[in-house]
Amino acid sequence: MELTLMVDRKVLKHYSLDKDEVMIGRDKSCDIVIENVGISRKHTQLFRSGGVWILIDLSENGTYVRGQRIAQYNLNDGDEFWMGKFSVLFREPQQSESFKPAKAASHDNIEGTILVDQRAMERIAKERSSALAGYITFPRPDGKIETFTVMKTATWMGTEKSCDFRGAGFGVLKRHVLILRDTTAFVIYNLGKWKPAMINRKEFEEHVLKEGDVITWMGRDFTFHLGAPKL
User: Fold this and answer.
1) For residue 218, which of 36, 49, 63, 167 is within the disulfide window of CB 3.0 to 4.6 Å?
2) How far apart, in whole angstroms, are the C-alpha atoms of residue 65 and residue 98?
3) Domains of the chain, residue spans
4) Per-residue pLDDT tens listing for the chain (231 residues)
């Protein structure tokens, strides 16, 4: 994968990265560090799942594709995404062999139209079918235990209506906690500086979830389990 970092359309640096996860942000631990007050400590993450590169916005200020703010976006070779005045051009030559854009996406259709050859579709389906299964259990107000199956690539906790688990209060972000699911693991990210989530009563920034891990957020406990829910 190749990424080109630009500011005001001027190239700052080219990156050639051979890894399945890439973090972009202001923090020194990021793979691509952008030292600017408009960039969050961990602003945007790219990760590969089932042969597809997925872009996840982790910031308050937003990540944009073709002028529209995204929460999650499947990247195609040649896509460009924006973080404030900075932009990143995404290139993956191998992807071009399997994914052939039929036409450029309009502002009204940010996903665009993608034609995928049959062999690529079969390969992706096979890889995705082997993805890990997981679910979360938590008590309801009436004392009964509710089960939430982690099916999506990104599961969110926050104040935003689109979040899977919602909370409210001072210091709670629109997207406060993120659980990423791919073919190998479930990884949870703590994005809130105030009222942070905890794993097994300990603070964390990033954690690979294991069977029985307890996620505490907004005074509630959520227990993570590997595998399919028991009927």
Assistant:
1) 167
2) 22
3) 2-91, 131-226
4) 899 999 988 999 999 998 888 999 999 999 999 999 999 999 999 988 777 899 999 888 899 998 889 988 999 999 999 999 999 999 987 654 444 443 443 444 433 333 344 445 445 444 444 457 899 999 998 989 999 999 888 899 999 888 999 988 888 888 899 998 877 889 999 888 788 899 999 999 889 999 999 999 999 999 999 998 876
What dotted CATH number matches 131-226? 2.60.200.20
- Smallest Cα–Cα separation from 22: which of 91, 93, 85? 91
What pairing do the DSSP bridges indicate for beta strands 154-158 and 165-166?
Answer: parallel
Backbone angles phi, psi at 118, to 5 degrees: -60, -40
In which order are the strands placed within the sheet that holds 177-181?
Answer: 165-166, 154-158, 177-181, 186-190, 206-208
Question: Which of 96, 91, 53, 92 has the alpha carbon at shortest distance from 73?
Answer: 53
**The pair of three-digit structure tokens given for residue 96, joined into one six-digit string:** 């071009």
- Among candidate residues 25, 42, 22, the one with its CA nearest the CA of residue 192: 42
Q: Which CATH number fits domain 2-91: 2.60.200.20, 2.40.30.10, 1.10.287.3510, 3.40.190.10?
A: 2.60.200.20
- Smallest CA-to-CA distance from 48 within 85, 21, 23 is with 21
3-state secondary structure of 127: helix
- Examine domains 2-91 and 131-226 and report if their fold is the same: yes
With beta carbons less than 8 A apart as the criterion, state whether 139 and 145 touch.
yes
